[in-house]
Amino acid sequence: MSALELSALAAPERRSQTVEAPTVAALAEATAGLWLLGASAAVGVASTELMPQVVPGVWAVAVATFALTGPSFLVAHQYLDHRSPPQEVANAVALGYAAMGVAAGGFSPFVLLFATTSGQWFSALSIAVALSGMIGLSRVRTALVQVDPELHALARAWVLLAGAVALRLAADVAWTLGGAA
User: Fold this and answer.
1) How far is it, in rounded angstroms, from Cα 95 to Cα 178?
2) In a domain, 15, yes or no
């Protein structure tokens, strides 16, 4: 066997796949799902002054989380010299936002149920936002590993960072809303 054949056997084949960017309709559906979740919780708010703050609060946490942590992941990706194109990484992050929004829209009926029947809109909203965020971040991690299997550790670190930022932003929103509730 020649040296070239031996090196081909020793080097594992990369199994990267491309990740398609979500369509504009999918991103619009995600945004509508996040706003719907906020509106579902707002139905149970007793204060008319607080109601307009609840509706965009869910969407603001989601967008701010991805806006604050997405660029840091792209920079780390380039700095560590990974071979996957940055556009694929950005597509993976956009898929996570889309998954999070769809999940939020799916949790809206449950939040609406608790908001209208028991007045537990704040608890139901907190649980729905946490679950939606976990679904979105797990979708990002899955898509990133699909783009480049070498991104496994970096994707895990980014998900932890994004989760910490989301918790901090959600705590600020909860402090504002909970204090007024």
Assistant:
1) 31
2) no
Range of 61's domain? 21-180
Q: Which of these, 97, 90, 92, lies nearest to 31 by C-alpha position?
A: 97
**Per the domain annotation, does 51 fall within a domain?**
yes
Question: What length does the chain have?
Answer: 181
pTM score: 0.82
**Nearest-angstrom CA–CA distance, 7 and 14:** 14
89 within a domain of the structure (yes/no): yes
Q: How many CB atoms lie within 10 A of CB 44?
A: 23
Tokens 């956009």 found at = 94
| pLDDT per position as a tens digit, 60-116 | 888 998 888 888 888 888 788 777 888 888 899 999 999 999 999 999 999 999 999
Nearest-angstrom CA–CA distance, 149 and 12: 11
Distances in Å between the Cα of 79 and the Cα atoms of 7, 25, 110, 122, 132 are: 27, 33, 43, 41, 30
Classify residue 83: in a domain, yes or no: yes
pLDDT in tens, 124-175: 988 999 899 999 999 999 998 888 888 888 889 888 999 899 888 888 887 7
Distances (CA, A) of 21 to 18, 70, 115: 9, 15, 35
